[in-house]
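[Structure tokenization] protein backbone as discrete codes
[Encoding] learned vocabulary of local backbone shapes
[Protein] chain in single-letter code, fold in tokens
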Amino acid sequence: MRLRYKLIAVFGGVVLVPVVLFSISLIVLASHKNNELIALFNEEPEAKAIFFRLAMMFLVILIVTGLALVSFIYAEVAVPIHHLSEGTRNIAEGNLDFEIEVPDGDDRIADLCRNFNYMRQKLKDSADRTIENEMENRKLISNITHDLKTPVTSIKGYAEGLLDGVADTPEKQQKYLRTIYNKANDMNRLINELTLYSAIDTNRIPYNFARINISEYFDDCVDEISMDLESHGIELSYTNNLSSDVRIVADPEQLKKVINNIIGNSVKYMNKEKGQISILLKDEDDSVLIGIEDNGKGIDNKDLPYIFDRFYRTDTSRNSSKGGSGIGLSIVKKIVEDHGGRVWAQSHPDVGTTIFMEFRKHKG
């Protein structure tokens, strides 16, 4: 039975039950012999009229009270339920841009309406995130597809030069082979970024945390990095102000990706004939501060707050020398924060950029 008919039945009960009981009482009184009330009505017609007026007033009061009660119940229950029904229909049709009215008070109906609005907002936020992720995925695929074309074209061109005999001296052949090797590394880096981005997007980065001696770790990293920077004509300096026993809890492999991404950005945006990159380790009482500084092109103040956002690129021209997926520094931020640390940047245009990272010390 629909709520409307139930309320009509309640109204009928509120009005009819007292009327029926009153009528039965009158019938019983009328059938009783020597009833003083009946005798009074017979002797005094005015008393009879007064009695019937009172009875009609009683009936009117019952009807008005019944209508008021039914209206109150309908307003408090039926209207919110109708709004909830309309809301569920909107959600089923995919419309999440609405909000149902919440009745005043703290009763169950008001709580239900508030919870419904909360659920709708959560569904809307989830749908918005899904749309945003889809757009970011398409943008990532577009960026990487664009950037893969450059090394593929270079590899193809230099390989054809070797096959056609254009590189007719050992020096030229060595140069062609080195270029092919570097472009293949660029492709490998882009593919690795795509793989890591997929892991980040699903929160499935395979961390293997361990206690590592930060000085020993960076000593090894600097030896490895310096060889690569030397091939790019960039000078590397390294300053370690930590005591030899300082340790942090970190994943060595993922921390290396962080360092490589930062160094890679510095190399990518280096615009000085004599490039310089400096790595500084500093003791900050309960934490370790790591600074990686370059003397590259720097970052404008308007871009600096967004450089750790996914797909944000200060280089909008997307030329081949500064291509990239646009997720390198967002990967840095994600990994650093998953280690319980924080990362930030300072930069001055045409002077250089410094990326700072801070990690808590391990106290065992």
